[in-house]
Amino acid sequence: MAPTLQELGLDCLSPEERLAVAEAIWESVARDAAAAPLTPAQRTELERRLADSNARPDAVTPWEVVKAEALARARR
Predict the structure, then answer these.
(1) Alpha helices, DSSP H only, in 1-76?
(2) Would you tell me how many other CB atoms lie within 10 Å of the CB of residue 66?
């Protein structure tokens, strides 16, 4: 189980300090993820998706539409 804010002593920090810690953690995770090489299967899948996207540009749904539809469903 993940440690709590209290166990880590982060509950004593101001909101701004907690946000700075969260950003530092996120950046460290992003660096690790960026440094991790893709598996051959992952690379193949990414190439397949890119080719599909390039072949069918009209099949893409803009983020604003996806978000609006998701929010509408959540309100029901």
Answers:
(1) 5-8, 15-35, 40-55, 63-75
(2) 10
> CA angle 49-53-59, nearest 5°?
125
Token pair belonging to 22: 């969260």
Q: Beta-carbon neighbour count of residue 58 at 10 Å?
A: 4
Average pLDDT rounded to a whole number, residues 18-44: 93
Residue 60: φ, ψ to 5°: -90, 135
Amino acid letter at 56? R
Residue 53 near residue 60, CB atoms below 8 Å: yes
- 54: tokens are 């390039």
Measured in whole angstroms, the distance separating CA 60 from the mean position of its chain's CA atoms is 19
Kindly report, residue by residue over 36-56, the tens digit of the pLDDT.
889 999 999 999 999 999 999
| Tokens describing residue 1 | 């189980």
The whole-number pLDDT of residue 76 equals 87
